[in-house]
What we know:
Helices cover 44% and strands 8% of the residues.
Amino acid sequence: MPRNDMSLLEKGNVLKQYDLLEKCTQRQAAAKLGVSQSLLNKLLKTRHEIESAENKHRKRNRSGKDEDLEKVLKKWYVEVLDKNAPVNGPMLKSKAVSIAEKLGRSDFKVTDGWFSRWLRRENIALGKPRGDQPQTETDKKSADQWIAAEWPGMRENYAPRDIYNAHETGLYFRAMPEHTRCDCKERVTLLCCASMSGEKITLLVIGEKANGNCFENVRKLPVDFETNKNACMTREIFTEWLRKWNERLAIERRRILLLVSSHKPHSDLPKFDNIKILNLPTSFVQPCDQGIIRMFKVHYRKEMLKRTIELIENNKEAQTNDVAKKITLLEALHLANEAWNLVSSETIVNCFKTAGFSPRDSSCRQVMSITCAPGNNAFAPPEGLSEATFNDWLGIDENFAHNESNSIEEADQNDDREFEDQVQKVPTNEEMLNALNILRKGVQHYADSFAEHYA
């Protein structure tokens, strides 16, 4: 590497080596260090700037043209990380827009180029965080030790079908690929629960109280549904969910072991005769975080996109975002149920193995293989979407504060959410029969196979 193209880290090393040299003139020191005297002189003059730089791998300690905005964004990023919360690209872009508005920067645009340069300048590498996944090697080592020493005794009296993991995730149920996080306001929390053998429990969905009543005259929902002000899990909701499950297990004469995080809604719970609750350390890898929840969101987003395309095709002048707003909470619950049904038992079993709760074998791949393998059709983006755009869409709600204990200021959006839902007109029996007659006529004209339609 040419000596005039050194990174800040290399320049700092030259200065440290210079300090170790004794009784040398600047010319002699430069010769011993392998740099020119003029360069050494320049390094000594800019020593404070070099040694105080945060990103030592940059060639120059250079700020962007939006220096004030970038400083505020970096400060916010550090504060969020200090709260052990993951941060993704859409969230940072959304926060940058919010900061620009507060600074009166109406001309500011969050372009991919600006965002990439800012990440490089600040030496920030955004991964794909998974809820409570260990953030450090120490956490991972502790988790592995717990799995090896404690877990075998705890699971000794339970068959794989009786060991479950339950974990919350947030969902902006109307979000489209072009949305940023600050565009999304309609949200729900979902509790996903599955067993080591691949059995899934009906989704529990927690929503805000809607202004409209799309549930009018609905006899049965496809999921368990609760509401509260912030669409977050609470200890009361979780306790009631456990109580109902405990009653079902009593009828089946089953006892299960339930693995949950140690967050506030999962602690200080009453005892249940048929459910033993095991609170995992906060930094522990949970099976649901190893691909189960991500697979659910892949299916949900794809079904959501399919639904909006159908609506657009029926109304050629409609815009995608406008159509997405017309998807009611009731429709979203049905889409979520469909997506949950599409998560395979094989995925669930492999995620328990990846998290270490059951022995790995040759059929089990590590989490990155399960969730991000090239050529994995299950995770392939829909036609017309790039992989990067699809991944951003999947991760748009990764930082959703879905329970009482990890609520972070959500890009300062908490006070201006709007939850508007349409009051649906319930079709009459006559209208449904007329619709069926139209479908029959259409089948007779267009179909090339009739057995299923006759059935």
